[in-house]
Amino acid sequence: MIPVHGKPLLEYIISALIFAGIKNFVIVVGYQKDQIIQFFKEGDNWGVNIEYIEQKEINGTGGALSICEDSIKDDHFYLTWGDILVQNSVYKEVLDVFKRENQDYVMVANESDDPYRGAAVYHKNNYCTGIIEKPSLGKSKSTLNNCGIFVFSKDIFPVLKMLKPSIRGEIELTDAINYGIQNKKWRVRLVRMKKAQFRGDFGNAKVYKQLKKDKSWLKELYH
Asked: Residue-wise over 173-203: b if at least 16 C-beta within 10 A, else e?
């Protein structure tokens, strides 16, 4: 709900997903959840349906996803982080690739100088072959970073249930992806962003201050 040029960040994300064709939302909430719920309510002002699930145990990205299982009715679903914003066309491309190519798994990777803040994505022929969470600075052999935007099959939920916490004490979504690729023959299709394409990481305080100060990036959202 951090404000960015007159709107909370989450409203930009929801608007972009609506542009891509999404109508039904499940939002995982936690700290100061009432701010989110009171602002978006059931989604009527945006012409969508919104359900909220509280993550009472802060146990990672995989943990946050796992509590949504009963609320997801379709065989596939769209997932995005709540602190990452990209151009509207990227959100739409993910859904287009999923439908056009009949893919079970799609993920977005963005070019970076070093993916040590996120997760290094390794690939071959437009498919992810592995992903390393928070690699050491300067050690990654890939410049691709996990952007935090996906389409998944519901088959990911049994994998999440069997995972053990990482050394960070969290259920890592990246561990589920690696397990599926290595043990279940998942084909995870990559949508690769160009380095010049806009990606705002609002979880980075320095980046947030820059984006809040500068308005020029707003026009890039609609490219």
From this structure: bbbbbbbbbeeeebebbbbebeeebbbbbbb
